[in-house]
Amino acid sequence: MKKLFAILLSFGLILGLSFGANDVAGAKTKVKTYKNCTELNKDYKGGVARTSSVKNKGGKTKYKPYVSKALYDANKKSDRDKDLIACEK
C-alpha cells in the first residue's frame, strides 16, 4: 500500500511540474508589439535597445534605452536609423 502511494505521489509531482514549466516558458515568449514610437515611449522613455553595447547614431538622447532583444525584435520596424535602438529619445 505504501509503495503504491509513493508511486502515485511521484507520478503526480512529475506531471504537475511538467505542466508548470510549460506555463512559465509560454509567459516568456509573449512580447508586446507597439503601433508606433509614441506608444512605445509611454512605457519605455528612452526606447528599446537590442543589446547593452549598441551606440546611438542619431545624436544626444535624454534617456537611456531599455535593453531587451525580444522587445526590440518585436518592434524592429520602429528603428528608422537602423542603429539597433528603436524609438530612442
UniProtKB/TrEMBL annotation:
<feature type="signal peptide">
    <location>
        <begin position="1"/>
        <end position="21"/>
    </location>
</feature>
<dbReference type="Pfam" id="PF05901">
    <property type="entry name" value="Excalibur"/>
</dbReference>
<dbReference type="InterPro" id="IPR008613">
    <property type="entry name" value="Excalibur_Ca-bd_domain"/>
</dbReference>
<feature type="domain" description="Excalibur calcium-binding">
    <location>
        <begin position="33"/>
        <end position="88"/>
    </location>
</feature>
<protein>
    <submittedName>
        <fullName>Excalibur calcium-binding domain-containing protein</fullName>
    </submittedName>
</protein>
<keyword id="KW-0732">Signal</keyword>
